[in-house]
Amino acid sequence: MTMRVRAARPRWLELMLLAIPVLLLAVGLTQIALARGEAPGTQDEVLVAVLGAGLLVVHFWLTVRHPQADEVLLPTAAMLAALSMVMVARLEPGLASRQAIWVGLGAAALLATLVILPGIDWLRRYRYTWAALGLLLVLSTFVFGVDPNGSGARLWLGFGGVYFQPSEVLKVLLVVFFAAYLDDYRELLTLSSVRIGPVSLPPLPYLAPLLLMLALALGLVVLQRDLGAALLLFGLFLAMLFVATGRITYVVASLALFVLGADLLYRLFSVVTVRVETWLDPWATASTTGYQLVQGLTALAAGGLVGSGLTFGYPGYIPAVHTDFMIAAIGEELGLVGTLGVVGLYVVLVHRGLRVAMLTVDPFASLLAAGLTSVIGIQALVILGGTLKLIPLTGVTLPLLSYGGSSVLANFVLLGLLLAVSAEPRRGHDAP
Amino acid sequence: MRRNLEMLQLVLLGGFVGVALALGYWQFFRQDDLLSRATNPRVAEEARRVVRGRILDRDGRVLAENVSEPDGGSHRTYPTGLLAHLVGYHSERFGNFGIEDRFDDYLRGDRSADPFERLTSALLHRPTVGSDLVLTVDVRIQQAAVEALGSNPGAVVVLDPKTGAVLAMASAPTFDPALVDARWQALVDDPGRPLVDRAIQSIYTPGSVFKAVTAAAALDLNLVDPRERFRCVDPIQIDGLTVDCRNHAHLPVVDFREAFAWSCNRTFALTGLELGTPRLVLADGFKPPFPWQQDTSGSSRRLEEYAQRFWIGRSVPFELPVEAGQLKGGTAWYPSLLAQTAFGQGELEATPMQMALVAATIANGGSVPAPYVASEVRSPGGATTTLKSPGGNLGRAISASAAGTLNEMMILSVDTAYAHPAAIPGIRVGGKTGTAEAGETGSTPHSWFIGYAPADDPRVAVAVILERKGSGTDFATPAAHTVIQRALDVYHR
Questions:
Q1: What one-character DSSP code corresponds to residue A390?
Q2: Is B12 on the interface with A (CB under 8 A)?
Q3: Fewer Cβ close by (within 10 Å): the C or N end of chain A?
Q4: Residue B467 is part of a domain; what is its CATH number?
Q5: How many domains does chain B contain in total?
Q6: Nearest-CB residue to B26 (from A246, A297, A314)
Q7: What is the ipTM of this complex?
Q8: Phi and psi, residue A375, nearest 5°
Q9: Domain ranges, residue A175
Q10: Kind plus residue range of the DSSP H or E element containing B115
């Protein structure tokens, strides 16, 4: 194993940018306290301290061990996490400290990823293990799954009052597997084809394990009625397959399969039927199945350009506002300015993540970075599009913004992997 | 692979551009549309957060105020429970009623603060605080009025005859304005119609209390010497209608004042029929042509004119809508209708407010006081705005001298005749009773009283009606007595 220890180098840009989320959290919590007619309390100070300390430790480790790592990714993610802490404190004051603990643990998980990870190669080596582990976790919810918040789906595993959603882990593990597999068979998949008369088909035998894994993952989440996760995993697969091969044929074929599958689901599952009908006209069922979407859109409208200001809106009318519908609460109280800001943060994350993928030399690392970035981007698009009535609503968390332990943890681990990749040798720098 | 990554970046960024456009669409272009829909709970929420102004009686006693709830909202309470109809109710679901409705913009705070104060309040998210509204009513007099009505359907109106200020206004049966939301359907379905403000919205046959208007016309026109005695015993026949003197069977010879005090229907039928003549002929022993066989169009015109002057059949200007009532229905005048109208029957209908105004006008020397109930607005900042100055009038009904004579007749009625239950030792009280036949023949009549006190310097004028209770003397008059007594005890201008 090659050691890539470089001399520590200050990361001034990152350090300066990291001040913004800490400031945002301090200002946000102060504003909420003042609006409620109280002085900012000890809990507020602790929350700011947790975020600041967590970010500083990660920053310090990156400075010492990975000075080449991307300097924008961490502050951008931290902005989203800080906004998340502010909004959870606003929407569910009782959960504010829990969310802070999760962000703290997330920072620890990020650090652990950077510290423990022996190298990118180690991920590649155990690709089937990761895939099997992910599937096993999801599979276990069929046996041990619980539904702590009454969402109607048993998607969680419980350990003494702490709940954990395996599909959040599955997405990260699947990225690793896809990246490793696609890296192995990239050239075969890109170049070769099986000719049957005038039609050239992709080399199906080489795709089979990939498709099998996808089918298993999709099958499991669909059986769990976790349609958002299914959409995310499918999108992820498509994005990574395209990045690896660049073949439009795959995209077209996959989309055709997707249409067939979606149609089948639409016919088979009443859940899907209802979702699609609600999407087409939520106001027809504004008091039942369309209630969440209608209230979400109304909250966005109520916010207008600059919003009502924290605590002065009525986002409490939206079910699951602190998880899936966080953007509606931000829209009502921080306005279009706030929501476009959030979109801007995701754009920055996607841009920087793909930049990592473009700059890195190792194709596996590049695929890994592209996949991790796609997870963030696609997941954000799935829930934002659903909330905004662009696509049928499927429940996934808004990455780094929604309240929720497993989501926060998984996304911080994901960020750790991305940072690790960004520290790999780059084009035009010190490529061997 | 770089090109593939660029392509992926393009697709993902395209998605976010779509999201940004959708955000702009919902948050900007569709904003008004979405917010005006019934699915938007914010309008009701904002209204609930308004600290609605209080409604106070003339001495600052609280008639309506908001009580805070733990969640930041508040609900309306009505501590006295005595003015359900006048003060009304404030309901998000069923709208407002009464003073709560009429002065909603002040109470809600929309008209109170100056523009700069409103802007800063909005920017700082201060809850809107409404202005307090001060009424002219006195809770203590209102209490007496409510007790006087008891459970009997009816109404009481108490006015200051000099200023027009409403001192009390009660209607029975009543309701709890704080429970309107909870009991709405039951209140609407209740056959007793508790939501109707009988004082201003119900029209009743006034019966003999209307004789005050007929007498006022005769005196103002100088058609009669009130002290000239005449024999009044024989019933008269008008188009088959018999009008007799049974109300004063013990007094065969009377003057006009006594005929009024003893409520002689014959005398007032004749007065009505002869209003168009130069001199009333009232004594027994008529020779043809009888007044009712002559052309009575001049008489009916004069009765109409005086009814108008007393605002019978017209909408009285007031903060709340007052029913106009009518002197007669759509038919043309005929002698027996004119005769009946002149003593308060026929097709005549009036609100208790209008009859209280008749009493107040006599007490006020013939000038009709303009009734009002809302005196001033007190903004949260402490500024006071006068809504209406006392002492406005709605025109002169009769001359001061005619009013003076009528005043003596009203006093005589209390001192010696049917209105005696209204008498208060040491104080001169003027009054007129009424026992109004209405609806089916044989049904119990409405019991009426109108009057005022002290007669030499009037402070209060009242009208009392007890629906289908019996004679005016036996029921409305003693009820009015307690109200007048209480008003004189507590009310000093």
A1: S
A2: yes
A3: C
A4: 3.40.710.10
A5: 1
A6: A297
A7: 0.94
A8: -55, -50
A9: 123-268
A10: helix B115-123
